[in-house]
Structure formats: structure tokens, C-alpha cells
Specification:
There is one protein chain. By secondary structure, this protein is of the alpha/beta class. It has a single domain, classed as Pyruvate-ferredoxin oxidoreductase, PFOR, domain III (Pyruvate-ferredoxin Oxidoreductase, domain 3, 3-Layer(aba) Sandwich), CATH 3.40.920. The chain is built from seven helices and six strands; from the N terminus they run βαβββαβαβαααα. A six-stranded mixed sheet has the order 2-3-1-4-5-6, with helices on both faces. The chain is globular, with a radius of gyration of 15 Å.
Length: about 190
């Protein structure tokens, strides 16, 4: 397996570490070598949270600049801030409500590096389903359904079912499934 680098980012309390745990555990369950690292910053006060996750034969846990195939951001500004990690031809998945997405000033950069940028109103999906703090799972489902990941959407769903606290299990699965469904609406037939 080639090395796959993923950077996940957002603000404290948005569920970056739970997303990382889902991806890492699902990868481990498939027998992949997985390494990761988190930087919390002022997470407890809504500050930046960045998580690095690496699948494959890797020696360390940090993703180098210009080497992440995927960036998942639960907050648009945090996605832009972590853009230098994304490699040429990489992909960004961002929770955004913005009508001007991606921002005009970075479109040229994205085009030059051939980075595909997808936005999802993950927060709105989670809120409509009664789990306003679970936008992380909507974005994760969306990402899982659109990409050829080392871990399939069904495997991530199974991991979510297994590791979610019982009182959140049903809502977590519903929101993840809604993200998968939204991706299905956008996929070319």
C-alpha cells in the first residue's frame, strides 16, 4: 500500500479527534499500519485543532508540507490555514456555509496545484438531524462516499457504530449516513 496522508482540522469541540479515531481504528481493523499525531492548541477554548493521520509504511506520525492527499476541515478558515499540507492533485473537504466557496483569492492556487475542493454544509445537515455537534460525521460520510479510501464507507460506519458512546450511537450513524447520501446525490451516474 502506498502511503496515504490525511490532515484533519477545525476548532476545539468540533470532533476532529473523534474523526481521527474513526479513520485510524477502521484502518487498524483492516490490518493497515497507522500513525497519527494531534496538535490541540487552545482546543478547549475553540482554538485550532489539527490531526495528522498516516496509512502505510511510515516512520513518523507527522504529515510534511505538500504531502497530504486529503484535507478534511470542519471550519473553512482552518482549511485554508492548513492548505500548505495538501499535495499537488490532492483533495479538500470543507464544512462551509459560504456562497463564495472556495474563496476567490485561493482559487488560482488550487487550480495551479490541481487540488479538488469540495464544500458541504455539514453543520446544517447535523443540525437538521438533531445532532448539531456532529458535523464531523456528516463531513466524514461525505468524504468516505466520494473517495477511493483505504477504508470504505461501510467500514467507517461499522467503526462509528462500535466506538460511539451508546447514547450518541443512533444520531452519529444517522448523520454519517446523511453525509454518504449527500455524496451519492453529487456523484456522476
Amino acid at each position: 500500500m502506498d502511503t496515504i496522508n490525511i490532515v484533519l482540522c477545525g476548532l476545539g469541540g468540533q470532533g476532529i479527534l473523534f474523526m481521527t479515531k474513526v479513520l485510524a481504528q477502521a484502518g487498524l481493523d483492516k490490518g493497515f499500519r497507522v500513525m497519527g499525531a494531534e496538535t490541540h492548541g487552545m482546543a478547549q477554548r475553540g482554538g485550532s485543532v489539527v490531526s495528522h493521520l498516516r496509512f502505510g509504511e511510515v516512520e513518523n506520525s507527522l504529515v510534511k508540507t505538500d504531502s497530504a492527499l486529503y484535507l478534511l476541515a470542519l471550519e473553512e478558515s482552518e482549511g485554508y490555514r492548513n492548505l500548505p499540507f495538501v499535495s499537488n492533485g490532492g483533495r479538500m473537504y470543507i464544512n462551509t456555509e459560504s456562497k463564495d466557496f472556495p474563496k476567490g483569492e485561493i482559487r488560482e492556487y488550487l487550480e495551479k496545484k490541481e487540488i479538488l475542493c469540495r464544500g458541504l454544509q455539514a453543520g446544517r445537515i447535523a443540525e437538521e438531524l438533531g445532532g448539531p455537534l456532529s458535523s464531523n460525521l456528516a463531513l466524514l460520510g461525505y468524504f468516505a462516499a466520494l473517495e477511493q479510501n483505504p477504508v470504505l464507507a461501510e467500514e467507517m460506519r461499522s467503526t462509528i457504530e462500535r466506538i460511539s458512546p451508546e447514547r450518541f450511537r443512533e444520531i452519529n450513524l444517522r448523520i454519517f449516513d446523511a453525509g454518504v447520501d449527500r455524496a451519492g446525490e453529487e456523484k456522476p451516474k
